[in-house]
Amino acid sequence: YAAKESQSRRERFRDEFDQRASEHARLGAQLREALDQGQFQLVYQPIVALPHGEIAGVEALIRWHHPELGFMSPADFIPVAERNGQIVELGAWILLEACSQAATWMATLGSAAPGKVSVNVSARQLAEPDFAEVVAAVLAATGLPADRLAIEVTETAVFGGGRAIEALDAVHRLGVRIALDDFGTGHSSLGLLQTCPVDILKVDKSFVDNVTMAGRHAVIATALINVSDGLNLDAIAEGVETAEQARELYRLGYRYAQGYHFGRPVANPQFALESAAA
Ligand code: C2E
Ligand code: MG
Ligand code: MG
Ligand code: MG
């Protein structure tokens, strides 16, 4: 009986596994079409200066309007695109789209344009031997000055890869700024600060969530701003949802923040209006 049960459990597991694999295969095929059919869109979330909330930059975040499933979260399809390699083509499209949008804002808004656009880059993209050339080509094609672009990488993407550090060094030499995303949640955090050409630490939302309460998170948020200041990096607090958090972060020494409290990601941010209202 026990053997029978474990066999059926194994079968159920295999079924589930097969189902998931075929879902991924289907999603992979749909991803390929999605790019051709214009189903992707970038939205932009403000990164603001504390304490008053002037816009310092924006982060580009991808959205997929799936023909049957409707809105799909990047957390669900980026990992699939990474696994099957499509993130390389998709990532190049994202860079081009974000940089041409940023160049258009500069041309149409002048000094009201956001100072920087941040683009998320995955481990798989960094592993491509021509990553820096793709970035250089995008800057040349769009005319965006290199210092107006930041690329966001996670510690996990950079960890363990000599190739990834080389790619970041090459991009950094172009004048592009490098941000470590979700800082404090991946592998190796502090060690990376010695080997990686970092300009910006994006302190993960998990340390921001409870920053107003005395406890571990506040202690870590404090330690991270000290490290950041000591190394002359800009720290950005991620996922700020309340005025209390923003005030406390400012008190701890944070000068930049991002989160729903300041603005959600939107397709057409109204920079001129927002700065006039601030
Ligand atoms: P991330 O780069 O850390 O982006 C921040 C995520 O937190 C975004 O989710 C953003 O909408 C969300 N967020 C911002 N402020 C708040 C807040 O106050 N509260 C809460 N609860 N959430 C907030 P999103 O757009 O769903 O993206 C999720 C992740 O998917 C990103 O995390 C990034 O790792 C990845 N991703 C998004 N766009 C791209 C892309 O263009 N390329 C690559 N490679 N990855 C991307
Ligand atoms: Mg990011
Ligand atoms: Mg992040
Ligand atoms: Mg995050």
Automatic annotation (TrEMBL):
Domain EAL, chain residue ranges per copy: 24-278
Protein name in UniProt: Bifunctional diguanylate cyclase/phosphodiesterase
Organism: Dactylosporangium salmoneum
Taxonomic classification: Bacteria, Bacillati, Actinomycetota, Actinomycetes, Micromonosporales
